Amino acid sequence: MNAALGWTGELLALVAGVVGMGVLAVGLLRHRPDLIKSGKTYAWLMLLGAVIAVGALEHALLTHDFRIAYVADNNSRQTPLLFSITGLWSALAGSLLLWAAVLAGYVAAMAWRFRRRAEDELVGWATLVSLGVAVFFFALLVGPANPFVHVTGPVPSNGLGPNSLLQDNVLVAVHPPLLYLGFVGFTVPFSFAVASLITGRLGEGWQVATRRWTLFAWGCLTLGILLGAWWSYQVLGWGGFWGWDPVENAAVLPWLTATAYLHSVLVQERRGLLRVWNLSLVIATFCLTILGTFLTRSGVVASVHAFSDSTIGPELLGLFGVVVALGVGLIAWRGDRLRAPGTIDAPLSREGAFLVNNLLFVLLAFVILLGTLFPLLYEAFSGQQVTVGAPFFATMTMPIAICLLVLMGIGPALPWRKATAGTLRHRLLLPAWFGGAVVLVLVAAGVRGLVPLLAFGLGGMAAAANVRQLVLAARAAHRHGVGWWRGFLGRANGGMVVHLGVVVIAIGLTAATAYAHRTQLELRPGQSATFDGQRLTYLGMRQVQTPARSATELDVAVAGHGVLKPAVSSFGNDQDPVGTPALSSTPFRDVYLTVDALPTAKNGDLVANGPVTIGVTIQPLVAWLWVGGFMLVVGSVLALLPGRRRRPTDPTSFQPGAGPGGRRLVAEEAEAPDASPVPVTSRAGPSDDRAASGRRPWGLGWLGR
Amino acid sequence: MTSAAGLASSEVPRRSLRRPAFERAAWIVLAVAVAVALVVGWHRPSGSPRAQEIATLERDIKCPSCDDLSVAVSTAPTAIAVRHTIVRRIDEGQTPTEVEQYLISRYGTAILLDPPTSGPTLLVWVLPGLAGVVAAGALGGFLWRRSRAAAVAVEADDEALVRAALAAMAGAAGNGRTHGSPETGRPVEPGP
């Protein structure tokens, strides 16, 4: 029954998608508004099909329906409820179903959000493109990666259960869905970008329409990546949170291009520049999500995250190729319409800083992509295996990361169009002194090492520069009588909070990687040892037995941290034991213990009072990674909320008639992020469909028409 | 006190804080202080040469049974075995290169976490720098061309246009002032 229902749901979604694409295509090509408008119905039908399929698979997992091969492989009668639910994304076919369902949800949400513009050809094409992507994934589900296939042979009495690593931490319930919300969410801006290229409406309309969608997807991806790091820290047992694993890299690649886009889109909205660049970034972000899925789910790379092998590699690679060709082709086709109406006046300006920011992010993405793909390409050409690992990535990305920290300290203080040395000297003085003070205090306190000191100092400067912008924005809001807290709302101000989170993460990351200490201690029960100023006493071992897990736990007393219980566990029917690390966090340092070796007699039995080998990792400031992640989320939410909207004609910084030159700069207001000087002449033409999206242009150029 | 007067008075101390000479001096002091601190803090003491050689090797050698971990961080039995091998061979007087050569002969080139900086794998080391130079050059060229082409002056009739539009907005706000902010009704210039 479950299987039949699941098949039905998948087929319904697939058929709805194909029919919807056909109807929309006919309506768009023949200019039939009634047909374009009906396209959204198919989005809802597709969502219905996806919900039925997901419901059927969840029901099968919860009722342990081992007739379905996917359930037999990824569930057992002993699997706890939570990990039965998460079984949906424990292996390839189920996680593809989740992917497709999330995409169907996004398409339906688009249909709902733009229901009043349903006849608009831009929305029609965007719906068509997103339906097309969804159809691809539902076709995979109906074809080569169907989670509802029956077991061959007799129905087993019990299943295998999920991979051991996937059933000892609740983060498994959060990290993959968030990552998917992020990955799949970039389909929305991608669809609108393609729609704008097809319709030739290449202004800022599509970006304004998808601003919050992009930011939402970006926020989910950011949180998903950070929770993934947290998960691997707590589960994988090597004391690290980022291994430059191909799959981790695959998740961070679209994040980098999306982050670049979130910055450069401001330049286009404000100045009308960088149109081709922004379209390329959006299309590249989407391509990288597909490439990431290919790397994760095709088994071409060895990775801790590639939980199953599959046969859908060629299909994903095919989609990747089609999307790249489509993007390049469309941009080339529309090339003549993509000329920017304005120019960049001076390199030392806000838009200049955004350009450098974009260059750095794209360079970072290139380096990581190169390092990730190089072993594959090298093996293909030379037949020899080669590893590109953490030292390469650390060496290559560190200078770029330092440059980004510098830029984050300077960028927010730069005005649009043109900055003078005097302005910068004034605005950056306090932030620079704060960063300098951080370096001085740390050196005086005995902290050594050039790169960590640079990172801490530049982080301090960036934090101060961003706090300064927030203070200015809050004061400006207060002066306008709307409450100082309004100075924290809106894209620019929320962005400052996000920057603060990034600084906190950068500092935690630097401290944890530069000043980590590891050792292995061999201790008998009752013995103590001191490592890196931390006293540890091994108290003894215990056997722990629950239906889902059998484990050998050690009790280790860590001075100031209580008793930690690292273990070696076996889950379900999986006889291969995995280590279960134990950790204790304080704001200053984390103590992280693993069981590296248990004492065994010749016959393989445990010797309860024998010496055990305990792995100890002590890292400073790790906890701040997660605090920074929380700040990123808060900042993203603030950026999603509407900020103080400055009317384009408000004389905030440019005031005709005041003073001899006919203009005067009111220092504080001119600097407030939401109220920067308005370029008077730079915008040659207004964008085509701002009116359709109900927004006013920022510039004043439209007054002159 | 009218809001206009408040605005004007709040600007007076700000101007006095913006003394360029004071700011220049503050920047110079900061630069010198940070430079001295960095010179002092530059060097990071790191054990004996032997310990350093071992640490570098352990960081750069992949754990044979893991996907992407070095033997320094992995706790797998194979990693521990390699660590013992490294320590033993260094203590026998081998150079780090000789130890690396031995491990490569035993496990293949993939045992190195970093690809070798010689032969075809040099490419992966050179390309990022090359891309950085090309990108910086492209950006520099773009900005240079753009800023040369950007000499657009604000003409008098442009400003007249803006002034007329602002006056129209202020008139629509209905408070009769010539240059009132329509949002708050606050006068933005402290009259004659």
UniProtKB/TrEMBL annotation, chain B:
Residues 43-160 form the CcmH/CycL/Ccl2/NrfF N-terminal domain. Keywords: Heme, Iron, Membrane, Metal-binding, Signal, Transmembrane, Transmembrane helix. The chain crosses the membrane at residues 25-43, 122-144. PANTHER family: CYTOCHROME C-TYPE BIOGENESIS PROTEIN CCMH, CYTOCHROME C-TYPE BIOGENESIS PROTEIN CYCH. It comes from Aciditerrimonas ferrireducens. The keyword Repeat does not apply. InterPro entries: C-type_cytochrome_biogenesis (IPR051263), CcmH/CycL/Ccl2/NrfF_N (IPR005616), CcmH/CycL/NrfF/Ccl2_sf (IPR038297). It holds the Pfam family CcmH. Residues 172-192 are annotated as: Disordered. Possible subunit of a heme lyase. It comes from the Bacteria. The keyword Repeat does not apply. This is Cytochrome c-type biogenesis protein.
